[in-house]
Amino acid sequence: MKLEQAAKQLEALGNPTRLNLYRLLVRAGEAGRPVGSLQETLGIAASTLSHHLHRLVLTGLVTQERQATTLICRANYPAMNGLIGFLADECCADAACVSRAEEAAA
Q: Tell me, what's the pLDDT at 97?
């Protein structure tokens, strides 16, 4: 994953409403949730929900599928795992350097 893509995804998740919405979709699993159900759970206007979903779709974190007259939203788990991996990939990579620097300062 590129730094720019990760930054856009994190920016999208930086809004409390979008983060809450995304967590609802992650909890829903592969079945996803209909837009109407999300609107009812969140208690927000349809236009507001549409705006927030659009931001999550643009960053690739959410997918949508029309089933007859119902729009189903799903968390894009590969994208989520990619973002988590990007954040954790180099965890503690510089730990030895930090430890040596701390020892030298002591």
A: 66
